[in-house]
Design brief:
The chain has 426 residues and is of the alpha+beta class. The chain has 14 helices and 17 strands. It has a single domain, classed as Beta-lactamase (3-Layer(aba) Sandwich).
Length: 426
């Protein structure tokens, strides 16, 4: 499954550009790229690219680009190994905000082995993307590099579940055990009262299973489903909030059973393919492709395999921004209907563990609280977030290696001023 997707990495990056775009060399020069837009899905376009080549030394960088077809768009790209892409139709305000985001990204990157990628879109149309860092083999990364998105993976699982709800294959408010067949018997009698809605909103009462996920006792996420059955619950379903990866591992098993497909294939068919996302896939803990950033891996831990539907996906920053268009109520439905989208974006009514930071809808964080929607991710050295703002701008930041910030929520706080400035644009 992985081979054919790799062939589309560059195509996907270009396809997201929409309208016309500009390649940005490391010396700040910009080359306009004409494109044509698809009439069916706003995010899926075709394009032709101009060639950009660069030679990097330890302290300087040189680049050559083809002749521009229009006036260049100034984008501040001046680090040794960073690269960016910006639409030639970007407004002066958008360019300014993109530059501010880049400067903030740079404050994380210098003097470390970190890699970081950022992308911005507006109502599903590409605005800009930028990245800096090194691949697993030590080469400079580019805009086709895929980052681990950790718990941002939950958006893929929840959107898949909601597609199946629309198709009548899953019922939100029917107990999970009445929809999922297994030989396992729940240790706690309260398990029988858990609904799919409880799982999506982290109000099921299932424990976190941190030892199983992060200390090597579970080697495959299907095993984690059995572990969830064999644990005492924290509380009566629907009474409290407790963020638990177990909720989404259990949902992954339900997806497989009702569709008859492997979880990853179901997500592609129901969510990723309609959005035109081709760079996303699930990876193993020690799997580090030569073109992607390197990751810190604690020996003896197989957390990516164990988390599966709760956190094992990778994708490019541009595709992460593309994903957020699925939550934009101003666009024609891309994945789920307008009514379903409204339900996804509605707070469960039960306070989260950090109510001043976020509330939780159906598999979606309502950040600060309810001003922005999206999700964060934290695992080992990975910190990430993707947010959709009220004015239709989406911003995603993906980082890896060396812990500059404590978690994905802290990463949002780190970019708070830049996010709020972007949210003020018309």
């Amino acid at each position: 499954m992985r081979g054919w997707r790799a062939a589309f990495l560059v195509l996907s990056l270009v396809a997201f550009a929409g309208c016309s775009s500009s390649t940005v060399a490391s010396n700040g020069e910009v080359t306009d790229v004409p494109t044509t837009t698809s009439a069916t899905v706003p995010l899926v376009t075709t394009a032709t690219t101009t060639a950009t080549s660069s030679t990097t030394t330890s302290s300087t960088s040189t680049s050559t680009t083809t002749t521009t077809t229009g006036p260049p768009v100034a984008l501040d790209v001046s680090l040794t190994s960073d690269v960016g892409l910006i639409t030639s139709g970007a407004t002066a305000q958008e360019i300014e905000q993109v530059q501010q985001l880049i400067q903030r990204c740079r404050s994380i990157w210098p003097g470390s082995n970190r890699s970081i990628a950022m992308a911005v879109s507006h109502h599903g149309q590409f605005v800009a993307s930028w990245t800096v860092g090194k691949t697993n083999t030590g080469s400079p990364i580019d805009l086709t590099a895929r980052f681990r998105i950790a718990s941002m993976s939950k958006m893929l699982t929840s959107l898949t579940v909601m597609r199946l709800v629309e198709q009548g294959l899953i019922q939100l408010d029917v107990p999970f055990v009445q929809q999922y067949t297994t030989s396992d018997t729940a240790l706690d009698s309260r398990f029988a009262r858990i609904t799919v809605r409880h799982l999506l909103t982290h109000t099921s009462g299932l424990p976190g299973l941190r030892g199983s996920f992060f200390r090597g006792s579970v080697n495959d996420w299907h095993e984690a489903v059995a572990v969830a059955y064999d644990r005492d619950m924290n509380f009566e379903p629907g009474t409290l909030f407790f963020y638990s990866n177990a909720n989404f591992v259990v949902l992954g098993a339900l997806i497989e059973q009702v569709t008859g497909l492997p979880y990853e294939q179901a997500v592609h068919q129901l969510v990723l393919d309609p959005l035109g996302i081709v760079t996303a896939e699930m990876v193993d803990t020690e799997e580090q492709p030569a073109t992607d950033p390197g990751y810190v891996v604690t020996p003896g831990r197989l957390y990516m395999q164990a988390l599966g539907p709760a956190g094992a996906w990778v994708m490019t920053a541009t595709d992460a921004a593309r994903l957020m268009a699925a939550y934009d109520p101003t666009l024609a439905p891309l994945v789920v209907s307008a009514d379903t989208l409204a339900a996804i974006r509605t707070w469960s009514g039960i306070q989260s563990d950090v109510p001043d930071k976020y509330q939780y809808g159906l598999g979606l964080m309502l950040v600060t609280p309810g001003t922005y929607v999206g999700h964060t991710g934290t695992i080992e050295s990975v910190r990430s977030f993707a947010l959709l703002l009220p004015n239709g701008y989406a911003v995603t930041v993906l980082t890896t290696s060396e812990r500059k910030v404590s978690n994905g929520t802290a990463l949002i706080d780190y970019f708070r001023a830049q996010i709020e400035a972007l949210a003020l644009l018309p």
